[in-house]
Amino acid sequence: MFIRQTRALICLLLLLSTACGGGADPEGTVYRHAIDGVPGSLDPAHAADVYASTLVVNIFDTLYRYRYLARPYELAPNLAEDFPEVSEDGRVFTIRLRAARFADDPAFADGRGRPVTAADVVFSLRRHFDPATRSQGAWLWRDRIVGLDAWGRDGADPQAEVAGLQALDDRTVRIELTRPYPQLVNTLAMALSAIVPPEAVAHYGREFSVRPVGSGPFQLLSLDETRAVLKPNAHFDREPLDLTAEGFDPDRHGHYGLEALDGRRYPFLDRLEVHFIAEPATRWNSFFSGRDVDNVMLPPEQAVRVLESTHPLVFRPQIERDFQTHVGRETGLVLYGFNMANPEIGYHADPERDRANHALRCAIRDAFDWAARNRVFYQGLGEVFPGVIPPFLDEYEPDLPTESIDHDPALARQRLADHGWTAEQLPVLVYGLESSVERRQMFEQFRAQLAAIGYPPEKIRRAAFGSFGEYHRAIINGQVDLFLLGWTLAYPDAQYSLQLFFGPNAAPGANLFNYANPEFDEAFRRAEPLPQGPERSALYRDLNRLVLDDCAMIGSLTRTRVHLWHPRVRMLPDREVLGGYFLRFVDVQEPPA
Amino acid sequence: MSSLVVQSGRRLRGRLAGEPVGFLALIVVGAYALVACGVWLGWWGSEWSALAGPGWAAPSAEHWLGTNRLGQDILARALAATATAFEIGVLVAVVTTAIGGLAGGLSGYFSDGWPDEVLLWLMGTLDAIPFYLLVAALAFALHGHPWAMHLAMIATFWTTTARLVRAETQRIRRLPFIEAARVAGLLPRSIIVRHILPNTAHILLVQATLVFIAAIKVEVVLSFLGIGTQDSISWGVMIAEGAQDILAGQYGNFVVASLFLFGLVMAFSLFADQLQDSLDPRTQDSRWQPHG
Question: pTM of the entire structure?
C-alpha cells in the first residue's frame, strides 16, 4: 500500500515537473532580456540612458529609427511615413505621419487608445521646453527650433503657438529651424523624442514615468526594481518585416535563423520581460543556468571562460555549441578628461605657466598606458584609438599618428623636466571616480603609472562618489581635476562626440572638460550646418586634431560588446545607438511538445 | 589603579600559562601586531599599490602569494591591510573605551538625575537604529573625510561599554569606600575618575578587546561595500576585488585576505575570551575586591 502510494506520488511529481519545466510556456512565446542597470524613468523626456531607452523605444514610437541589421547604421522612417521634405535652405522640415494608435489605457476617455496625430508630435517635443517637465533632452533642440526656447521661457502656455513647431493637419508636422541642423532627423530617432499622448501625461502626472502609454509595439504590464513585463500593443500595426530592407546579409546574419521571420508581422512575442541585473556574476549565472534570462552581454571578467582567444576572437567550442554569439564594437568611447578650468592643470593667465600646464597634461597622457588598461579591464578586447572619433564612424582616421595613445614614460619625464616640473612643484590633482571596485582599481593603475614618471602618489587624491549622478555633478562643479568618462553616441555622427569640446557647451553642458579654444569653436560652427560629405568630414578631423594637440583629454578606447543568447531565440541583439529597438523583432522558437 | 593592573596582569599570565589555546592566540595576535609595526616602520608592505608584476601571476619567489588583476603583490597588500586593521582597531577601541567609560561612570553615578536620563536616551536612540545601517549612513554622510569610518564606529560602539560601566558604577557607588569618599568631601568628578573607573578596569579591558575585533570586522565590511578606507588598503577591499576575480577563476586575493582576517579575528576572540575569564570576578577563586 505504502509503495503504491509512493509510486503514485512520484508519478504525480514527474507529471507536474514535466508540465512546469518542459513544453510550451503557458504565457506563450516569452523572451527574457537582461540588461545591466535599472531605468530611472520611462517618460521619454527623461530617457537619457540606455536602460530607459531599451524600454521607451518599444513602448513609444519615434518618428525615425535605424534599420535593424544594416551597418553602418542607416536611418529609416518609423512613425513618419517617409523621410522629411526639407526646404532648400535646410531650415524647414515637413514630416507626414503614418496611421498609428496609442495602446488602450484608462487615461483615454473611453479607455481605448486613440489615433496618433501631428498635435501629439508637437506636444511631445514642446514639453521638453516646459520647465515643469524637467526634460533631460531639451539640449538636443535648444536654440534650434524657431520660437521653442522663448515659448518655454514665457511660461510654456499650452494654448500658445510655437512658430517653428506646428501641426499642419492631423498627419503633418512642420518644423522650422533657426539654422540648418542636419542631425535633426537623428534626434527624432532618439528615445527622448518619442511621442506621448497629452491625456496620459495629464492623467498620470509624475507617475507617467512608471505608467507609460505609447503607440509602440509593446505595452507595459508591470514594472518594479527587478524587471519590466510587457505585452504586445493590440493596436500596433506595421507592414511585415522585410529583412532585405533591414539590411539582412546572408553571410553575416545567415546563422541566426532570422530568415524565418521575413514577411511576418511583428512584434512576435506574447510577452517580453526585461530583467535589470546590475551584478555581472548574477547576470551571468542567470543566463548560464538556462533557467532565467535568455541573453547576456559578456562581463569582461568572464571572457577567459568564454573565449578561446581574444586575437583573433574565438569562442570556446562549448560556447559555440550551446549558444548564439555576436561580437560588435560599441558606438561610443571611454576617455580621461582634464578640468581645463582649473589653473593648476588647465588654462592659466600666465603664458609660461599655461605652456607648463600643457606639458604637464601631455606628460600625464604619455604616462598612461592604454594597452595595460585594455588588457587588464577589457581583456584586450577594446580598441584604442587617438582622439574622439571612434572607428565605427566614416570620419575615423586609421592613419592618425598614435603618439597620443602610446605609453612613453621617458617622454613624459622629459616633458616634465623641460618645463621645470619637480616632484615638489607638481600640483595636487583630484581624481574623481564612481565608488566601485573596478573604478578604484582603475584609479590605482592610473596613480601607479604616474608614480613611474615621478609624480608623487600622495599628490593624486581619490574622490569617490556613490552614484553616477553625484560623480557627474562633481565634474560639473569642478570638484575633480581628472575624470574617466564613457560617452555613447546617440546618433552615428562625429558631431556627437566633438560637441564634448565645444566652448558654449561648457559644464554643466556636455563640455565637461571646460575646453575653450576659439579656433575649435569656429570650426565646429562651420561644420554644424553642413550635410554629410567630404567638407564636413575634413572639418571633423581638424577638430579632432585640435583636441589632441591641446592634450585636453587622454583617449580613447572603444569597447567590444560580446553578446550570447540561447539558440531558441531568433534575434541579433544590439544595445548601441537606440538601446533595445531590436526587441520588437525578437522571436522565440517553441520547444517541442 | 596600577596595583589593579599589576594584579590583573599576574592573574592573566597565570591563566594563560595554564591555557595553551589562549597562549597560542596571544602569540598569533603578537605576530599580527609585529606585522603591523613592520608596515608602520616601512620594513614591508609599503609597496602595496605598486604595479609589481603581471596580472594574476601565480605564487613565485618574487611574489610569494601571487599578484592581483593589476599586478599588485597580494602579500604586500595583505600585510599593509594588517596595519590598516590595527590602526582602526586600536584607535576605535581606545577612544570608545574612554568615551564609554566616562559616559557610563557619569550615568551610573548620577543614576537618579538628569545626566543619566540624557545619556540613557542617547544610548537608547543610537542602539535602536540598526547597527550597520547607522555606521554606513554616518560613513556615507562624512564621505571623503579620512576619519569618517573611525568616527562612525566610535559614535556607535561606545554605548555598550557605557551600559556595562553604568551598571558596575551603580553597584560600586553603594559600597562603603565610595560613601566614605563622599563624606570626606570629594567632588563627584574625583570620585568617578579616581575611585570608580579604576574599579571598572576589568570591564573596560575586556570591552576594549571586543571593540577592537568588532572595529576590524566592521572596517572590512564597510571597505567591501566601498564606504570604508579611503586611500589605503584593507582586507575588505581585497575581498571585494576577489569577488570580481572569482568570475575569471582567480581566487588568490579572496583566499589570502579572508585567511588574514580569519586568523586575526579568531586569535583575538580567543584571547578576549581568556582575558574575560581571567578578569571576571565571578570566575575568580576569591571574591573581587574593589580598590578604593
Answer: 0.84
